[in-house]
């Protein structure tokens, strides 16, 4: 089932659906107020995302041009047994990866505390921080920590398991176990690659799109891709290309096209500098400003997290 539903307890505002009202609110804020901080995600994960729906399989592959990702589910030791973990999917592991990556980049450390910081992150995204939501995040963080991740570049394969060590959360309330440090430690390879290839993202856009894994993927892709377009005439991308990259979960091309068009409307609302024109057979990507100016990234790099 697609992870595109409103968060628990969220009620519509006025006559608009809750997700639409939230997007409009953040779109107005983004249009009127410059960002004061940047979140981050690895450039490869901006091009090839995790599964959007739950899968019973223990491996997952996604390819975009010369970039490819292979995820293999793993197991975690609970003190008595090895417990099989699922493949991470949906919005929660995407947001978790952004959170962990952002904290690592800002602190310049592969060791990230994920106790109170995750609760604060959920609150910033306006996600319910009650037991059920915290438990869902815990489950996805466990899946992330256990999985193996390989990245493909052309003919090169890189072992990019993101999490070296995971020790956090003992219950759904988020209370800390005093005997267990609440930290996530990134692998040296992933941390080194992240610090070199981190893509700055507007935290408000992530908050606006947090209901949809597809919207998060499209936003991070455009944030990575558009400001790299050099030709004034732009770069063409076909519907076939888009479906190969984003439509793996859609059996009917028409359903994917409808979903993609509505998703692009939401994404462009919170990334107003994104320039792309719909043409016959696809889109033309045009040179655009990144969602986070370089000055903001530089200020955050030398300032406090």
UniProtKB/TrEMBL annotation:
InterPro entries reported in the protein's UniProt record: RepA_C
Name used for this protein in its record: Replication protein RepA
Organism: Lichenicoccus roseus
């Amino acid at each position: 089932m697609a992870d595109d539903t409103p968060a628990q307890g969220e009620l519509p505002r006025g006559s608009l659906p809750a997700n639409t009202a939230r997007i409009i609110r953040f779109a107005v804020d983004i249009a009127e107020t410059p960002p004061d901080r940047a979140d981050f995600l690895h450039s490869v994960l901006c091009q090839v995302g995790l599964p959007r729906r739950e899968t019973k399989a223990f491996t997952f592959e996604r390819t975009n041009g010369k970039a490819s990702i292979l995820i293999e589910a793993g197991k975690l030791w609970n003190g008595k047994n090895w417990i099989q973990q699922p493949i991470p999917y949906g919005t929660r592991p995407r947001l978790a990866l952004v959170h962990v990556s952002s904290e690592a980049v800002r602190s310049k450390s592969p060791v990230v505390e994920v106790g109170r910081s995750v609760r604060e992150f959920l609150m910033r995204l306006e996600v319910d921080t009650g037991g059920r939501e915290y438990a869902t995040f815990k489950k996805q963080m466990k899946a992330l920590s256990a999985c193996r991740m390989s990245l493909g570049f052309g003919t090169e394969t890189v072992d990019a398991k993101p999490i070296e060590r995971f020790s956090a959360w003992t219950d759904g309330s988020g209370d800390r176990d005093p005997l267990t440090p609440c930290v996530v430690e990134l692998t040296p390879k992933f941390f080194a690659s992240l610090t070199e290839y981190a893509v700055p993202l507007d935290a408000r856009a992530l908050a606006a799109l947090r209901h949809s894994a597809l919207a998060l993927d499209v936003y991070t892709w455009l944030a990575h891709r558009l400001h790299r377009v050099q030709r004034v005439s732009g770069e063409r991308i076909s519907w076939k290309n888009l479906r190969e990259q984003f439509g793996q979960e859609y059996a009917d091309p028409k359903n994917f096209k409808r979903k993609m068009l509505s998703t692009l409307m939401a994404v462009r609302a919170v990334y107003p500098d994104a320039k792309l024109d719909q043409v016959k057979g696809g889109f033309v990507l045009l040179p655009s400003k990144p969602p986070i100016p370089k000055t903001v990234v530089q200020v955050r790099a030398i300032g406090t997290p």
